[in-house]
Amino acid sequence: MGAREQPLAPGWKMQGRSPQPSMELNRLLLLTSFLLHVKEDRASPTRLVCDNRLIQKYIMEAKDMETRVGQCQALPVLSCPAVLPLVDFTFQQWKSKLNETKRREILCDLALLVGAVAGAQGQVSEECGAKQLSQLYRHANSFFLLLQTFSWEGGHWEPSCSPHSMEQTHVTSIFLTYRQLVQGKLLFFFEDLAKVLCKQGQGDSKDPPYEAR
User: Fold this and answer.
1) Element at 8 (helix H, strand E)
2) CA atoms of 104 and 101, how far apart (whole Å)
3) How far is the C-alpha of 83 from the C-alpha of 169, rounded, in Å?
4) The CA-based dihedral angle spanning residues 197, 198, 199, 200, taken in that order and rounded to the nearest 10 degrees
5) Could you tell me which residue, 129 or 40, shows the higher pLDDT?
6) CB 68 within 8 A of CB 132
7) 3-class DSSP assignment, residue 57
8) Each residue's pLDDT tens digit, 92-122
């Protein structure tokens, strides 16, 4: 039984197929799926930022997925290594960046991570590992789509960046990288946005007003 085909993240094209629905429609449908996933009936990007319990929920889920995949038996060594983003950073460097710069940096990391998960899915047939990879794909791709609704600049995000990367042949390394990204850059980014979006009467910010498109 062949592996179920996963939807591509925005910006990635597949050759030899009939035209796909517009990018705007794809983003709307997938963002709706994300909001339903977190079970927030009236959720919005602003609420996802301002309710710290939600990002903490995703950190716990990232840890759980990492633990569960580590318990899978007979995980293969990837014959085609996964290309993963290097997500380490120093807090001082992070503080010096504008929120839009941070957003684009995380999008680059997520684009590479989503591609790595998709590549690993084609190499892992064992049920336990395949199930965890499928869940990881949904989570990483949901964040990838969500961050594209946050913008301080016009136009669509294009996958033109070249994040620092490394090659790994162990499936568990993909889950480790995702957990580090959510627990690190993504958490701090949401905390930075909360300072702008969640407090009325805030003083001047280095960033222009937030726009959800």
Assistant:
1) none
2) 5
3) 9
4) 70
5) 129
6) yes
7) helix
8) 888 899 988 899 899 999 999 999 999 999 9
* Whole-number Cα distances in Å, 185 to 100, 116, 178, 201: 13, 19, 11, 26
φ, ψ for residue 83, nearest 5 deg: -95, 110
Measured CA to CA in angstroms, residue 127 lies from 62, 135, 150, 171 at distances of: 19, 12, 36, 14
Q: Which residue has the tokens 């339903």?
A: 36
Cα–Cα distance for residue pair 186/180, rounded to 1 Å: 9
> How many other β-carbons are positioned within 10 Å of the β-carbon of residue 15?
4
Secondary structure of 102-130 in HEC code, one letter for each residue: HHHHHHHHHHHHHHHHHHHHCCCCCHHHH
Task: Specify the residue for token string 């594209």.
Answer: 148
| pTM for this prediction | 0.72
Name the nearest CA neighbour of 113 among 34, 166, 35, 56: 166
Residue 63, token pair as written in the block: 């840890």
Pairwise CA distance, residues 65 & 179, whole Å? 9
Structure tokens, 56: 């903490």
Secondary structure (3-state) at 85: strand
Beta bridge partners of 167: 83
β-bridge mates for residue 84, sequence order: 166
Q: How far apart are CA 104 and CA 109, in angstroms?
A: 9
Residue type, 149: T
Residues 147-179 have pLDDT tens digits of: 888 765 554 545 556 668 999 999 999 999 999
Question: What angle do helix axes 127-147 and 99-121 make, rounded to 10 degrees?
Answer: 150
